[in-house]
Every structure is written in structure tokens, then in C-alpha cells.
Amino acid sequence: MSEQSGQIFRPSQRAIRIDPWSMGALFIAVLVLLPIIAVIWFALTPTENVWGHLISTTLPRYLANTGILMFSVGLLTSMVGTGAAWLMVMYRFKGRRWLQWALLMPLAVPAYVGAYALVDFLEYAGPVQTTLREMFGWENSRDYWFPAIRSHWAAILVLSASLYPYVYILARAAFREQSGAGYEVARALGVGPFGRFIRVGLPLARPAIAAGAAVVMMETVNDFGTVDFFAVQTLTTGIFTVWLQGGNLGGAAQIATLVLTLIVLLVTLEKLSRRRSRFYGSARGARPVVPTELKGLQSWLAGALCFVPFFMGFVLPVAVLLTHAMDAAEWVAPGLLKALWHTLATGGAAAVLTVLGGVLMVYGVRLSGKALPRLLMPITAIGYASPGAVLGLGILIPLAALDNRIADGILALTGWDPGLMLTGTAFALVLAYCVRFFAIAQSSADAAFGRVSPSLQAAARSLGQSAGGALRTVYAPLMRASLGSTLLLVFVDCVKELPATLLLRPFNYNTLATRVHEKASLEKIAEAAPAALMITLVGLIAVALLARANK
Predict the structure, then answer these.
(1) pLDDT per position as a tens digit, 409-451
(2) Which of 211, 270, 295, 339 could pair covalently with 515 via S-S, beta carbons 3.0-4.6 A apart?
(3) What is the pLDDT of residue 282?
(4) Distance, first Cα to last Cα, the chain
(5) CATH topology classification for 49-324
(6) 3-class SS at 91?
(7) Candidates 1.10.10.60, 3.40.50.300, 3.10.290.10, 1.10.3720.10; CATH matching 19-33+327-551
(8) Contact 362, 442 (CB under 8 A)
(9) Using 50, 70 and 90 to split pLDDT, how confident is the model at 312?
(10) SS3 for 372?
(11) Torsion angle, CA of 299/302/308/314, rounded to 10 degrees?
(12) Whole-number Å distance between alpha carbons of 112 and 517
């Protein structure tokens, strides 16, 4: 009987044995999801419920403007990105070799930087209107008509010029992976170039285009600097207004919850659209697409069409910034070097911690094989879809409460007041970056682990290596290049992040992004130019890596 009892008891002991890798993966997942849970909690338990007031006053305007921006930018970027990708894959024309990489470069310029440059270029005192007045002899703005710059259309144009590469990258990869046989058959049946695009190329690439458009629309919802500069009231600006100006946390959380709902709905629709559309290529004998040579006017026209988005998204803003940055005094202006150091410190720390957390979580899930960590892993990607303003709201209030409790406890025990150690430093900022961009590190780590043969780990374990030893000696060397690229991409995203930085930075703590926003908001473009160019330079390094990976 005792032996039977022992047999029954020992499996139970094994069942409840604590697995450190599973616990680590669960801890990381909970840490990433806590800000989202906090926002939902604040929305459900407001101290002052202003939901009815918001619905009857500003919320419809916030929602309408957000919807217009989302779908307009999504449509325009889909058209531009898909069209440019089609031309690049299907044809040879003047400038194609360098334009295929130049079309990625607008990713290096944050949308809010493009907004400042466009307004400076087109405003009344800018070069365009000044040249028009000199050419036609106009004396003031009453003598001619010029479209309003700070408007919806300008915000749509700037956001589209900055974000179309997301669609271009995925659409170009989709067109390159298609078999040339289908196009040859369509050509033999008398289908023209436009017909081949509509009937063959577009249906096969539609899932990739939809995925790119979904990312674009999520980035549009997240944007604050552009819409704030153009005075377009969206849900994101509404969070800042209701919380910081109105002093109502519950109302801001309710708007943030609406933003989350919108994002979840968008991601769900995108996944459903891809699930319904299934296209398969031939498993053997697939011939790559052979680009058609364009000559004469057609070649120049194709090159010009691809040059326009590159000009709007990169050449114009960088040229405007370089013009203002010619004054050497601005490069040694007070606060610039400190903002650079803050950017490098917070972005670097967040990038290292994010990639490390992604690796440990994926490795822990793979080792444990348990259902709960595996279920939570894809849910942690919601942080990337969540706007920075939402995460800022979900991090600052709980962290401030914890910070005050810690300070009060230390004061009661020692008589020394340490001050705010979490929210009074860059800790909250680093945490927000980690949560916001954790999905990038997680997906990259998952793909990197998948490329390593399980037999290598088994061999290391048979030689006496622990799980941590196998990670250090087997996986780390093989994944170094992939994780290095991920580290840089996360760092660049941290450098460009504006909404979360504005909400969570300590007092008198500027990064390059907040310095650009502050100076440009005061119409001091010359003082904002050096910091904006520094951000662009960091982004160009990441674009170079993307170009190398997409060869």
C-alpha cells in the first residue's frame, strides 16, 4: 500500500515541480501585459465617469478624424507601396537599381519630422510661396489662393510618405516570390500589363499588402507629433487632452481602451482576410519573374513615378533640415548633447533588455512545452500594436503608486527620503520602450531559434550542458547576426518614439525626439534640425540593414 501511495505521490510531485524557464517566460509575459491590463482597469473603475460627456462632445470628432486618417493613409500607402513594388519587380528602367533601396529610406525619417519640414517648405514665409509671389508680383496672401497647410490632407500626405515602405517591403517580397509562368500564360492569352497586375499579381500579393496596410494603420493611430502639429484631433491627442489638460485619468483610460479595441479589431480583420485567401505556388519547376525592359519615355516615366514617394518621404524633409542646420552654433546649442546622451542611454538599455527578454521568453516556452506560456507568447505582441500614449497611461499611474509606497517605506524604516526612484528616473521610459517593441524581439528570436537544429541542443545536453549552458554555447553564436539586427531595429524605434516619451520622461529630461517636438512646436525649426538629423542618421543605419536583408 505504501509503495502504491509512493507511486501515486511521486508523479504529483513532478507535476507541481517549479520550472524556472516556465516561470521566467510567465513573468516576462505578465510584465509586458500589465500596462494593458492597467488601462482597462482604470477605464472600468473611473473616479469621475465622463464617458457620457465625451460621447456628446469631443469623442465623435476624435473617432471620425482617427478613422479618416487610418483609412486614407492605409489606402494611399497601399497604392504607392504596391505600385512601386510592382514596377521594381516586373520592369527594368532608368534608376531602378538605386531606387529599389532608396524607396526604403523614408523609414529613417519620423513622420513628425516630415511634418515640420513640409510646413516650413510650404508655409507663407517658405520658399514655395515666396517664389510664387516674386514670380507673379503678388504682395500678400489675399492676392492668391494657396491650400491650408495645417489640415487633414497634409497630415495624410506626411504620414503616407513616411509609412509607405511597410507596404513596399512586403509587396515587393510577395511579387518576387511569385512564379513567372502565370504571367507568361496571361501574356500568351493577350492580357495586357494592367490586366496581369489586376488578375494575377494583385490577388497573389493581397495577403502581404493587407499585412503592410494593417501595420501602417496601427502606426497612424499611434502617431502624436504629426497630428498635433497639424492640429488634427485624434484619439491619441484626446488621451493627452483629457488626462493632462482635463486631469481626468478615467476618461483618458476610456479613450485608450477605445483605441485598443480599434487596434484589436484591425488586427483581427487583417488575419481573417488572410485566412480566407489561400494561394499556393507550384512545388517544382517554379520560374522567377523576368523583368521586362522599358525604353524611352516609358523608362523615364517609371523612374519618375518611383522617385516621387522617395522625394516626398526623404529628400524633401532632409533637404529642409540640412538648410536649417547649416548654422554651426545650433550643433553646440545647450541641451542637444544631453538629449543625445539620454537618447543613447535609454534606447540602448531598452534595446538590450527587450532582446534579452524576447530570447529568454521564447527559449523558456520552447523548453517548458506547457500550454500557458505558449498561449501567452503571441498575446504579448499587443504591446507593439498599442499606441505609446496608451502604454504611457498604463505604466505611469501604477508605477507612480508603487514608487510612492517604496519611498514611504524607506522613509519610515530609515528616516531618509529617497524620492521617486522609478518615475523620477528614466526607468519608466525604458520599461515603456521594452513593452512597446517587445513583439519585434520576440518574433525575431522565435524565427532565429527555429533555424537552429534541435539536434545541436540535444548534443550539448548529452555532453553535460545545462539549459542555460546550451543557450550560451550553442544558440547564442548561431543567432548572433539575427539578434544584432533586431537590437539595432529596436534601438531605432526607441529613438523615434514620441508619445510614450512625452508622457513618461522625468522632469527636464529630453531625448532627441522630445527636443525636436518642443523646438518645432515653438516654430524653431533651426534649433530642431540637428536633433532631427541625428534621428534620421540612426534610422538610415537600420534601413541599410533592411536593404541588406532584402537582397
Answers:
(1) 888 888 887 877 888 889 999 999 999 898 888 888 888 887 7
(2) 339
(3) 47
(4) 69
(5) MetI-like fold (1.10.3720)
(6) strand
(7) 1.10.3720.10
(8) yes
(9) very high
(10) helix
(11) -80
(12) 8
